[in-house]
Design a protein that fits this description.
- The chain is built from nine helices and eight strands.
- The chain is an alpha/beta fold.
- It folds into two domains: 245 residues, NAD(P)-binding Rossmann-like Domain (Rossmann fold); 29 residues, no CATH class.
- It has an eight-stranded mixed beta sheet with strand order 3-2-1-4-5-6-7-8, with helices on both faces.
- The longest helix is centred in the middle third of the chain and has 29 residues.
- The protein starts with 7 loop residues before the first strand and ends with a helix.
């Protein structure tokens, strides 16, 4: 307990699901929490005071928290979210980029708006919040923790989610590069690609029939985020963790052994590539 004592954390999309579990556990571990959420549905529509409800839960349990209702997805919103932490607590140590929406559609049917909205919330939202938070952390010069949210939809692919998958793959790249750039400031940057029984997960046809909240609920994801946010994880950065129920692992970009032509300066011919393609593709 108290692994986050004295820390101030922003958690976006913390009004329900995995984000709510993050907020509750971070507060229980001693962090002061900014609970960000506009209270929209999984498709991004609507608004409700979910952030205020989570804040009330935290305060009732003896923790400290404030709500922020800015929609994630713009640089202006990111600045206001970070400023909420500074106004309330005077510092910022942890950012968890968790907010997200879905606009599932196959490539041939997806509209420009459906593409832009998902990229804006997930990719631009993660980058803008990360940039705003890192700027504050570097000035304070006490290090920091940034935890992004990727997905197997981007890392492995999933039918009907070109927009969501592209954004989540982009977040994996953001995580890797930001970890390199912020290392000198003692700011770690990692990502979690979670699988849990949430509103988004239940949009996958038949998924809810395969698992239960007791064995695959959002509560299984929160301890990993809390660990990565703690001082104990100071040496871990640039990683994308997968977590599915009680199974935790790492996603890595890897290359096959491939094939090499030793023929001087001459490039491959199309015919040669055709003959070697099995060796190139196979592991």
């Amino acid at each position: 307990m108290n692994s986050l004592e004295g820390k101030v954390a922003i958690i976006t999309g913390a009004g329900g699901g995995i984000g709510r579990e993050y907020a509750l556990l971070f507060a229980a571990e001693g962090a002061k929490v900014v609970v960000n959420d506009i209270g929209c549905e999984a498709d991004g529509n609507g608004q409700s005071p979910t952030a205020d409800h989570v804040v009330a839960e935290i305060i009732a349990s003896g923790g400290q928290a404030v709500a922020n209702n800015d929609p994630v997805g713009s640089f202006a919103s990111a600045g206001r979210i970070v400023q909420t932490a500074l106004d309330a607590y005077g510092q910022l140590d942890i950012l968890v980029n968790n907010a997200g929406i879905l606009r599932d559609r196959t490539l041939l049917k997806m509209t420009e708006q459906e593409w832009n909205q998902v990229i804006e919330v997930h990719l631009t939202g993660s980058f803008s919040c990360m940039q705003a938070a890192a700027r504050v952390m570097t000035v304070r010069d006490q290090g920091g923790r940034i935890i992004n949210t990727s997905s197997s939809s981007g890392l492995l692919g999933n039918f009907g989610q070109t927009n969501y998958g592209a954004a989540k793959a982009g977040i994996h790249a953001l995580t890797r590069i930001a970890a390199l750039e912020l290392a000198k400031h003692r700011i770690t940057v990692n990502a979690i690609a979670p699988a849990a029984l949430t509103r988004m997960f239940q949009t996958i046809r038949g998924a809810a029939d395969l698992v239960s909240i007791d064995t695959f609920g959002p509560k299984f994801i929160a301890p990993l985020a809390a660990y990565l946010a703690s001082d104990a994880a100071s040496s871990i950065s640039g990683q994308t963790f997968g977590i599915e129920g009680q199974h935790v692992f790492i996603y890595k970009m890897m290359t096959s052994h491939g094939a090499t032509q030793w023929n001087g300066s001459r490039p491959w011919t199309i015919e040669e590539l055709g003959k070697a393609i099995e060796q190139i593709v196979q592991w």
